[in-house]
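ok so for the tutorial part 2 we go from a plain amino acid sequence to predicted C-alpha cells. step 1 is just haveing the sequence, like this:
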Amino acid sequence: MHPTTPDYPLDLDSKPDSARCLARIEAWFNQAVLDRPPIRFYHHNVEYEGGAALDPARWATLRDRWFDVEYQVEAFERSIAGRTFHAETFPVFWPNLGPNVYSAFYGGELEFAEVTSWYAPLITDLEDLSVLAPDPLTSVYFRKLDELTRAALERCAGKYLVGYSDLHPSLDCVAAWRGIPALCMDLATAPDKLEPLLERSVRDFHRIFDHFDRLLKARGLPSVTWLGIPSLGKLHIPNCDVAAMISTRHFARCSLPLLRREVAGMTRNIYHVDGKGVAQHLDLLLAMPDIHAIQWVQGLGLDQPILQWVPLLRRIQAAGKSIVVDLQLNELEGFIAAVEPEGVFLCLGVEEGQEPEVIKRLEQW
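step 2 — the prediction. this is what the C-alpha cells look like for a chain of 365 residues:
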C-alpha cells in the first residue's frame, strides 16, 4: 500500500512540502501515483561547480580546498540561499571527494581537479594484495568524509538535507584498484585469480555505509545521496559502470554475486544503468527482487532523444520496477504520450520560472 496522506515527518523551512514529496516518492517506489509522478528539477540542486578561485593565502593546492570543511559547507549553503525547491527537488549537501573515494579508503592517492578527482591503479600483482589497507575506516579520505558529514549535520537543521557520499564497492572498485585494461585482461585470462580482490571490494561495504547512515538517522534525516531522491529507511544507488565493457557471462560471474551482497539489507535500491552498454545486462538486474528501481542514463549524441528508449523503459515497468528518467522540456509531451506514469520519476532540465507550468501539466498525466 502506498501512502494517501503526507504523514512523513521532515521539518525543512526551505521546503515546507517535504512530507508530501516524500509520500509521492514512496508511492513511486510502489509503481503507483499519489497525485502526480515525482519530478526533480535538477538545475536547482546541482552542486556548485568549481568553487572559489584557488586563493594561495588559504589553499596551497586544490586538495586543500576540497579538504576545507568550513569552505565546502558554507559554499553549498551559499549555493542554495534564497532558492525555491519545486516538486521533489530537495536541497541536499552530500559530502564528496570524487567517484573513487571508496577505492581510496584502501590506499593510493586521489588527485583533485576543479570538480572531480582521479585515482591511479594500485594493484599490479593479483597475488600480492598487501598494498590494501586492512581497515578502510582509518583512511584520511574516510575521516574527511566523516568530518564533512558531521559539520553539515551541525548546521543543516531546517535548511537542507545531508546525504552520504558516492560509494562504489564491488567490480567498479576493483576496476579502480586494478585499472580497466588490466581488469579486462584478468577477466579474459585469469578470472579465478580475481576472487580475493573481488571479496575485498565488498567485504567492508555495509560497515562503511552503516557508519554514515547512523549519523543521518541520529538527526532524524532520510537516506539520500548524489541522485537527490530521499527515502526513509536505507537507500542505496548501486552501479557497475565497467559492466559496459564486459560480457554478460563475466557480469554474472564477477559482478552479480557482489551486487547481491551490496544491496542486501537496504530498504530501497536504485540501480544506476549508465547507457546501453550496461543495459545489455538489464535482464539480470530486473530479475533481482532487491533492485527496486532503475535510473536510466541514455547518454549523449546518437543516444538522444529519450523516445528511442521507450521500449526499454516499458520493459523495466513491465518487470515491476520503478524508473528514473532524465528529460529535456522539449521531450516532455512526446514522453507523456508514449509512457504510462506509474513508477516514473522525471528529472527535468528547465529554465527558472518554468517549474509551476510543468508541475501543472504533469498533474494531468
